[in-house]
Amino acid sequence: MTRHRADIAIIGGGIMGSATAHALATGGFPGTITVIERDPTYSTASTTLSVGGIRLQFSTPENIQLSKVTRTLIDNLEATFGPGADIAFRGQGYLLLASDAGRAVLEDNVAIQHTEGAATELLDTNTLEARHPWLNTQGLALGATGAPGVEGWCDPASLLALFRKTAIASGVTYLTDTVVGINQSARVACSLELASGNALAFDIAVNAAGAWAGDVARLAGIEIPIEPRKRYVYVIDCREPPAGLRDAPLTVLSEGIYFRPEGRLFICGRSPDSAEEPTDLDLEAIDHNFFEQRVWPGLAARVPAFEAIKIVNAWAGHYDFNTFDHNAILGPHPDLANIHMITGFSGHGIQQAAAAGRAISELIMHGRFTTLDLTRFATARIPDGKPLHERNVI
């Protein structure tokens, strides 16, 4: 057995773990940092399998603030990461659609976004038809879209690589292994048991294990309401798209179905209802019936050009789904104060990692948030029974 030691051990080297390592290493933390990542290829990581959306259209003020940090980062990639830094951002926007039943919620959400400085615009059906002639507006009441060029999507793997590369260049060690146990001494977590048979002692640990953060927490004898949830992404070919469809924003239909352009193709999907959540978490198992029955009919009804399409590919990824309130869990656990949580983003991790990682670094180095006040995301809200619900979960 080899015994390693680090001042900070980060469990998980995906977007959250790497953003935290980057923030600590470039923010002046004087000690040693080790990131434990079981798959350095990231072939099954939630980060690299994400659709990479960047939006300000949330219902929770803190989520808007988190995404604004990433949007500012996109405009300053080279200043942050060096010459040539690029994440292939496409600022084609987000378009959220609502029926009469969802009108009030959409209007409330936009009012919150305006309060937080997001220039979200409400669109009536006449405006929707004029801007997006490929859209069937029958049964719609409103749409909401961000300021031109602000919302869109990026290449998640490129963003992860920038955080990871800069962290390593700043002295962070990445260790390929799997955490199988967390030891305690006098009710303080003190070391990680690794699948290799080695051990890593630490002063502070960060649980950035994404969809598996609940499992990692249980290794330390604590509970957080994080479960892996499987989501399908379907790639479709529309042979003769009408004018403007290839330049469409990431569009979210009132039924929760979404689509966006991907080169000459399109990708689409839908969050399943609770009764139809996939029980098989194997990423190789793709449910094409879900597309035929739950995605395509609504998609074709709202975008008539999609009546004639062909599936050319599909993949699945995992969400770190917060069953308590669909929002992030940030900061120390009340029962083990030297284990910090950075999880529960429920599909929004790519766009919120930069600020969330910075927030954890502030807690570790200063004992408090020094930029954004994210106190309402504290782990303690869970045992206290004080949910902070996010309504715009896609």
Q: Keyphrases for this structure?
A:
394 residues, alpha/beta, D-Amino Acid Oxidase, Chain A, domain 2, 2 domains, eight-stranded mixed β-sheet, 9 helices, 18 strands, globular
Summarize the structure in words.
The protein contains nine helices and 18 strands. Strand 9 and strand 10 form a beta hairpin. The chain has helices at 15-26, 61-74, 77-81, 103-115, 125-131, 156-169, 213-219, 288-302, 349-366, and strands at residues 3-11, 33-37, 53-54, 94-98, 121-123, 142-145, 152-153, 173-176, 179-185, 188-194, 199-207, 226-237, 250-252, 257-262, 265-270, 310-322, 329-333, 336-343. Strands 1, 2, 8, 9, 10, 11, 17 and 18 form an eight-stranded mixed β-sheet that branches. An eight-stranded mixed β-sheet has the order 5-6-4-13-14-15-12-16. The protein folds into two domains: 3-51 and 156-225 and 324-381, FAD/NAD(P)-binding domain (3-Layer(bba) Sandwich), CATH 3.50.50; 90-149 and 230-317, D-Amino Acid Oxidase, subunit A, domain 2 (D-Amino Acid Oxidase, Chain A, domain 2, 2-Layer Sandwich), CATH 3.30.9.
